[in-house]
Amino acid sequence: MPDLEDTLKKELECEVVKPFGARSGSFRMFDTDKYGKVFVKICSDKKIARPMFEAEMVGLNMLRELNLPNVSIAKAYKVIDLPYMKGGACLVIDYLFTENMFSEERQRDLGKALAHLHLHNARMKTEQPEKYVSKFGFNMSTYCGRIPQDNSWKDNWVVRRIF
Questions:
Q1: Which residues contact 93 (CB under 8 A, 6 or more apart)?
Q2: Residue 54 covered by a domain
Q3: 82 near 89, Cβ under 8 Å?
Q4: Which residue range forms the structural domain that includes residue 133?
Q5: What terms describe the molecular function in GO for this protein (predicted)?
Q6: Is residue 163 part of a domain?
Q7: Percentage of the chain surpassing pLDDT 90?
């Protein structure tokens, strides 16, 4: 039976997939010959594993497109089914070293990036009207941890988030 390393080699078309660093039941880290260091998130819950990771992949790649100032967003490479888990899946993303994540400077940068993110749609209204969205939501449901979040489009943010 193939294990995670074998599955990653096959699905990522890598010859080298070498584990490094910490690990748990929900994540592993590998150094690969094709992608460099990657972080692999793992979920064994066959009901949510694939849709949860597909939503995360879409979200991460959309955030990367925004080119947020002073913030690194991991590139999501692939969602991979894990047959040996009988329905589980994993998400392979860039490994980001976060040694100084809690410094005052990093927290300030994250705050600025968050403000930039929240103003993105307002900028689109004048800069690229064809990309402006007049509703609140997202084009797919996402997850908060393992809890699904309905993100269907609504006219009102309060209705969108509370009801």
A1: 38, 39, 40, 41, 60, 74, 75, 76, 77
A2: yes
A3: yes
A4: 4-96+103-149
A5: protein-ribulosamine 3-kinase activity
A6: no
A7: 42
